[in-house]
Amino acid sequence: MKVIKTLDEEFDMSEEADWTREKISALKREAQRIEEDATYSSKGHFNAEDRWLRRNYWLGVPSTLLSVIAGAALIKSHPDLATGFTLFASLLTGLMTFLKPNERAALHRAAAGQYLALKNNVRFFREIELLKITQLDNLQKQLKVLSEIRNDLNLKSPSIPRRAFLDARKGIEEGEALHKTDMENF
Q1: How much is the average pLDDT of 31-58?
Q2: Nearest-CA neighbor of 163 among 59, 53, 56, 43?
Q3: Are 35 and 122 within 8 A, CB to CB?
Q4: C-alpha span between 174 and 186 (Å, rounded)
Q5: Contact by Cβ (8 Å): 50, 163
Q6: 8 Å CB contact between 37 and 114
Q7: Nearest one of 25, 37, 24, 29 to 118, comparing CA atoms
C-alpha cells in the first residue's frame, strides 16, 4: 500500500526536523559551556596545586636544613647560632603547620582531576552521544546530569587563586588544553 503525503504532512515533518536540529544545537552549546568551564577549572586547579607544592618545598626544605644546622651548632658549642637557626626553623615549621601547603595542593589536585574527568565526559557527550538524535529526551537528561556534576564540583572545590586562573587562561588560549586532533581544527 502506497502512502501519499499531503503538503501539510511534509510541512510538519520539516518543522519537526528543524525543532530537532535546534534542540541538538542547544544541547551542543550547553555541553560546550560545561566543557569550557571544566577546562578552565581543571587547568586552574592544576596551576594552584603546583604553586602549593612549591610553597611546601620552599618552607619544608629550609626548615629541615636549619634544624640540622641548629643541631650541629649546638653540638659544636655554638648556642647563639643554634638558637638563631632553631628560631628560624620554628618559624618556617609554624608557617607549614598554619598554611598546610601539602594539604592544599592535594585538594587542588583532586579538584583538577574531577574537572578533567567532567571535561572528558562532556566532550564524549558532545562528539559521540549527540549523534544519537533518536534519543533526544535521554540526551537532555544526560546533559542535565553533567551540569549538576559541574555545579557540585563548583560548590565543593577550593577557590582557584587569581594568579593560577590567569595562568590557566593564558595557557588555554595558547592551546595547552588541546589534543593533537583538536589542534588541526584550531
Answers
A1: 96
A2: 43
A3: yes
A4: 10
A5: no
A6: no
A7: 37
Q: Give the burial string for 63-78 (b: 16+ CB within 10 Å, else e).
A: beebbebbeebeeeee
Question: Which residue from 122, 121, 138, 139 is spatially nearest to 130, judged by alpha carbons?
Answer: 139
Q: Who contacts 116 (Cβ-Cβ below 8 Å, separation ≥6)?
A: 38, 42
The three-state secondary structure class of 95 is: helix
What are the distances in angstroms from CA 119 to CA 62, 116, 135? 39, 5, 22
Closest CA to 112 of 31, 43, 33: 43
Inter-helix orientation angle 162-173/7-75, to 10°: 130
The model's confidence at residue 4, banded by pLDDT at 50, 70 and 90, is very low
Phi and psi based region of residue 77 (left: phi greater than 0; alpha: psi -120 to 50; beta: remaining):
left
Asked whether the CA dihedral 7, 10, 12, 18 is positive or negative, the reply is: negative
CA distance 14 to 113: 44
C-alpha distances in Å from residue 78, one per residue of 65, 74, 160: 17, 5, 45
Q: Indicate the domain borders of the chain.
A: 38-174
pTM above 0.85?
A: no
Q: What's the Cα-to-Cα distance from 144 to each of 36, 138, 147, rounded to whole Å?
A: 16, 10, 5
